[in-house]
Structure formats: C-alpha cells, structure tokens
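Database export, one record per block. Field names are fixed; values are copied verbatim from the stored entry.
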Amino acid sequence: MKKIFLFGLIFIFASYLFAGNKEHFVKIESSLMTLQNQVQMLQNSVVKSGTTSETLLKQIIDTLSKITITLNEVVSSKEDQSKNINENFDEIAGDIADLNHKISNINARLSKVEHGLAEIKGLILSMKMHKPTEGTGVDGKPLPLSPDKLYAMAYNDYLQGNYELAIQGFLDYLSKYGDTEYADNAQYYIGDSLFNQKRYNDAIEAFNKVVTNYPNGDKAPAAILKSGLAYMELSDTKSAIEMFKKVVKKYPKSAEAKIALQQLEILGVVKK
C-alpha cells in the first residue's frame, strides 16, 4: 500500500514537468525516490529485527523537509511567473488563463501530496511508538526468541560492555538451548563478563563449567587460560601456573598455548 502511494506521488509530480521548472521537478523526483527507499528500509528493519532505526527515522524526516522546501519553491516560481505575465498582459493575455489553471491544478495536487506526506509521518510516528516485540502466538502470549536471536542479543550486550545484561542473556540462552552449538560460547562469555567485572572467583567457577560441560568445545582452551589469568589477579600464582601448564599440555597447538607459555616465561617457570 505504501509503495503504491509513493509511486502515486511520483506520478503526480511528473505532470509538473510540462508546466514548471525542470530543475525543481528533478529535485522532487529524486527526493521521492529516496523517500521510497528509506521507508522500505525502515519496514524491512521492523520486520527482520523487530526494532525501529532512529537513524532511518531522522533521514526520512529530513527527506520530507527537503520535499516540502522544493514544493514551496515550485509554488513561489509559479506565482512569480503569474505576476510577470500580468505585468505584460497585453502581449500574453491568452496565456494567463492557462497558467492560472495550471497553478490551480498544482495547488490541488500539492494539497493531496501534503495529505499523503502527513500520512507517512503518522505511520512513522506509529511505528516508533509501537515497536513490535518478538511476536505473539494464537493465545496472544509472546513467542520465545529463536536461539540465534537470543544469543545475538546477549553477545551484543557483551560487546557493548553491558556485562550484567550479557550474563543474564547467556544464562537465559543456556536454560533454553544448553545443548546447541553455541552453548560453550555462552558459558565462556558468562565467565569473561564476570572477569571484566573483576569478579574473579565467580569467573573461575564459570570457566570451569566450560571445561566440565563442554570439554570438546572450541572455548575450552580459552576458558583454562582465562582461569589462569583470573588466579593471577587473585595473586594465586601457584594455581595460575597449573592452569597455564594445563593449556600447554592439553592444547599444545592452540593460540592459547602460546599465550600460556609466555605467561610461564614471565613467571620464570620455563626459560625463553
């Protein structure tokens, strides 16, 4: 429906080419095409992610403002042309009636366009105020988030430094999808979030769960290494050395093993 309306706008403005400034027509046509694309992108964003892009909303409002400015220039241009014609009435009297008729048509169409733009603004405001959630079932209750979306939301909080939200998100993920491909990652990032909060004992406990629950996962070497670093922060050098040696022994070809060796060299346990 919105696509049809936007194409209708373009059709209305196309008629201006026969009676107005070509430069204005080109500006309007370009702005309308931009507006069409922006609205489509906004609709796609709402459908795919369930969120409304603030940046897209601002861009759409800016485009609407540009269209309004250009429309005002068109009307002003037509009025100036009408004044000039009236001043030279004796020479072009036959054109006055035709021009005034065209101006009336433009004003009428402009009214329709402004009404349509108002509808678009209303739609944008409605979308902004009523952001869709993850959806509802036939009983009206919210549907659960998919594993990928739930993990992505928690991981995004982790990347943004919102560690408490990340921990809750990953715990929620593990409670629902503890046997999926990214379960070991979720448990590891719980530990890393705790580490970044300087909750080192809790972090060590979380890292131990990675090794215990997902021994064949690709996060096991990182979890053992990070446990060693947590022990270092707690000034428990003996336990840290045990963790570093464990990484080197169990995963000698891993990147974590190289880091563990560097730590052992710093501690003077092995020679460089």
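Remark 1: The two ends are 71 Å apart (CA to CA).
Remark 2: The longest helix spans residues 89-129.
End of record.
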